[in-house]
Structures are given as C-alpha cells and as structure tokens.
Design a protein that fits this description.
two-stranded antiparallel ribbon; single chain; alpha+beta
C-alpha cells in the first residue's frame, strides 16, 4: 500500500488510485459487504473557518486520526481497525473516507458518532487555536421539524405570490397612468 495512503503516480504524472482502492476494498469484500451497499463507507468532512489558521497536512492527519479514534472506527493501537483515507484538496478542509468493515472481516460498529466527532472538533479547536463551534451537549437550538419547514416554505410561497400580484398590479397601474399622461399632454 502507498505510504500514508498517498496514491502512486504513473510515468505520465497522473495519479494511480488502483492500489489504494484495492487496499480499502479488501476488508469490505472479506466482510461480504456488497459494492452497492448504502453503508459501505463513512464519509466525514472536517473543515475549519475561513479566519482560522491554515493547517498543515500533518495537523489535518492528526485531527483525522483523532476523529477515527474517537468514533471507534480506528482506535489507536487496533491493528484490525477499519481502513481509512484522508484527502485534502483545499486549505480549509479534508474528506475522510472509512470503510465500514474491519480488517478482521467484521462489520464496523458505530454509535453516537456525531457526539464523538463534536468532542474531537472541540479538542482540535483548543489544540490548534481554531474558532470554537457549538457544543455537542444538546443545548443548541432545535432545528425546525419537516412540517415546520414545509409550513415556512408555504408561507414564503404565499408572500412571493402576493408580491408578484402587487408588482403586476403596480405595472398595470403605471401603464394606465402613462397612457393618461400622454393623452393629456
């Protein structure tokens, strides 16, 4: 497998991901997880604020490894953990893709990973001096329910519809007024 998950390059300079893909796929095949299974991989996007300092590849790697440890997908020291790769294609974020099968052929188990990821985010914010985000203690404001979102959408549609009617009426009134002014001139 390429060192640190980096893709090899061909003679033409193009990246060759075949070896990396095969290494990531091997535990999935061993666990019997089909290629079209909806939970074949976990995709986690780790990003920082535009005002935060630019992190190095090593720092992003440490953050990604900590996140994988905290979720239990790849605990430190577990040689049979899931295989994962972090891809950085911009200064402000990385994509982490982890297979949902351990290297021993067992399916990966996750539970409350959102809260563990939030804890990891706070640890990274503190360690690297990044902008602090909302806590993962369920004290943040609640999101609107689907019904509330739909209702808000209907209200917005009604306001837009009313505004369009007013604009059309105003346009008609201006046209009549313009004609009247031309006649009286």
């Amino acid at each position: 497998m390429p060192a640190r998950g980096r893709a090899r390059t061909r003679g033409s300079g193009a990246r060759d991901f075949r070896e990396l893909i095969a290494a990531l796929d091997a535990p999935l095949e061993l666990a019997g997880i089909a290629k079209d299974h909806p939970r074949r991989v976990a995709h986690i996007i780790l990003s920082n604020h535009a005002d935060d300092p630019v992190l190095t590849d090593e720092q992003w790697g440490e953050i990604a490894a900590d996140m994988m440890h905290r979720t239990g997908l790849a605990p430190r020291g577990d040689d049979a953990a899931v295989r994962w790769v972090a891809v950085r294609h911009a200064d402000d974020h990385v994509h982490v893709v982890a297979t949902m099968a351990r290297q021993d052929g067992k399916r990966a188990a996750t539970h409350n990973e959102f809260y563990r990821l939030r804890e990891g985010a706070h640890a990274a914010e503190k360690k690297y001096g990044l902008r602090s985000t909302a806590p993962a203690d369920r004290t943040a404001g609640t999101r609107a329910t689907r019904a509330e979102q739909q209702n808000n959408g209907h209200e917005l549609a009604a306001v837009i519809s009313s505004a369009l009617i007013l604009i059309a009426a105003l346009g008609a009134w201006l046209a009549v007024r313009s004609r009247q002014q031309r006649r009286s001139a």
